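Why predict the complex rather than its parts? Because the way molecules touch one another can change local conformation, and only a joint prediction can capture that. The input here totals 695 residues.
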Amino acid sequence: MPGAEGSGIEEGRVENRWSDDEATRTVVRYRESEVPEDLALRVYTTRLLGSDPRLVLHGGGNTSVKSRATDITGEELEVLYVKGSGWDMATIEPAGLPAVQLRPLLRLVELDRLSDEDMVNLQRRNLLDSTAPNPSVETLLHAWVPHRFIDHTHANAILALTDQPDGDAVCREVFGERAAIVPYIMPGFDLAKACNDIVAASPGVEGMILLKHGVFTFGETARQAYDRMIEFVSIAEDTIRDRATRALVPADLPPAPPAVSDIAPIVRGLLANPGVSDDTQRFILDVRDTAAVLEYVGARELDRFSQVGTVTPDHAIRTKPKPVLLPPPSSDALDAWRVAAGAAVAAYRTEYMDYFERHDARLGGTRKMLDTSPRVVLVPGVGILAAGATAKAAGAAGDLAEATVEVISAAEAMSRFESIDEADSFDIEYWSLEQAKLAGAREPPLARHVVAVTGGAGTIGRATAAAFHSCGAEVALLDLPGERLGEAATEIGALGIECDVTNDVSVRSAFAGIARAFGGLDILVSNAGAAWQGEMAGVDDRVLRESFELNFFAHQRVAAEAVRIFRLQGTGGCLLFNVSKQAVDPGRGFGPYGLPKAAAMALVRQYALEHGREGIRSNGINADRIRSGILTGEMVRDRAEARRVSEAEYLSGNLLGREVEPVHVADAFVALALARRTTGALLTVDGGNLAAALR
Ligand code: ZN
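Output of the joint prediction:
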């Protein structure tokens, strides 16, 4: 079969991963905390569903079981355990399936209409535990369909069948009497009501196919509902295999596409919301460039099928209804591409504002417009760049974008991709329940910023990386290969990148790695350094040059590479250098260390002078007497002895009389990063030493 090879759905298949042993173990494990057997099994199969990305991605599904529970007075109640919002199905616990009293929910079926807010309120009012999370927005559907176990997913293969012009007919044909077919209706009261009527009319069905949305399966046991889900999705996969006959026709693209690490910072700059300078709203990017993605973005008809809409409505919350499509870049004409890509993003923003105004007016003009930046960027020849406020959010958008590639490629291989219409999509993106979640969310001060720390596995580097991470930044740790780097990165939650800052090739490749991982860079902490000693009159030329290589040229090398990325982004930037007290107040025998540091201090000012107009700031720290790789325990002992004081007295020999620790340097770096009108400055972190004061 010609067409289907490249798209992921044909390559992998869902598998039935039920295991009697695992199921029993789960029941036994939860019995200790008095979790009833049916809820334990509900947790078990919910995890099975949630851990298969072909079935469930980022909140795209839910499950329930009808059971009994006893309240504090001993009264036995009929309850619905249904997935609560905020829980991930792959790792759900019993607490993620709050119990809602069933009888009051069943009475609601008599109503003709119910607002979303009233629905949420009624669901919360009937929770057994008032502190439990909000039950799923599909709770009423779970309550009214009479089966005990209900599973719901947005399986890719099912969507590929339903998201085409004759999706209804195809599903009727392949599922026959086994599944009811439900037309697209927005989740909530109306959908629950329609499903209730449909299931009442055909009580024998094993599940429902919701056109352009997903699939439900029912069962008397956890296993039966799960088995049916796997079976339904397998039927859909077989159907795709049989009917997918057409390959995506490739477009004529420029022969040598640029590296994604050169494209990503440009895109990141274009996505940053204007308002620029201090108020720029940045995004973290996530790159996807698998063979299937490249085939998709390289297709001749990309501009048609990529602009139709989402493959299932709730993607719109993370990806917006449409991606932006950029022109194909060529490595020899990046400047021209930047202009063309900028025009495409500007057009996207205008179109998004029009879309908002059109549909907000329809809903009474009460909605608050979200930002206009696209979340999914298609770059022919290069791949997909997904955007989010954090690396995690960008990764989720990337996962949804890849699922979209699978679904649309399969739908196009069979027929033509079709989605819900724009109004339905708007209703999901601007759902009052979703808007409520956005209100009041405040971001930490360096959220959406990418920070690179050289010497990141050392004492000061580690403390600095941790300080930036706790301010919400995404952090890349650069250091020489070794266990220390991996350990530090894991401990902090940063990305570890091997880098020898004295080597051009290594530095280039490390910064390309940062751009690939996060889309670009906002702050560089050039921290790597080491102390060479010797009196100048007798110093070996080789020692001096070695010290200059690390303590001066490496600062210059990484700063130049950072500025290259800052300029591709066009959103300013921040250079921070770990200079030294030695640059101002030299110590006897420390010339080989202090001289390159003095040059590095001049470098701080030179960058400040030459790049201020581009919003790039350059500042440094002069720290002193901090226990680290540069001032080892042995050195502290020797110096204390030489001065006839205790080690503690030596370390606290400053105006404040207190030891200076790595965390104090880290905090000073963060303070300089946040000092938005400070450039060309040097900050001392030495507990006070007037001999080392700059002025
Ligand atoms: Zn759904």
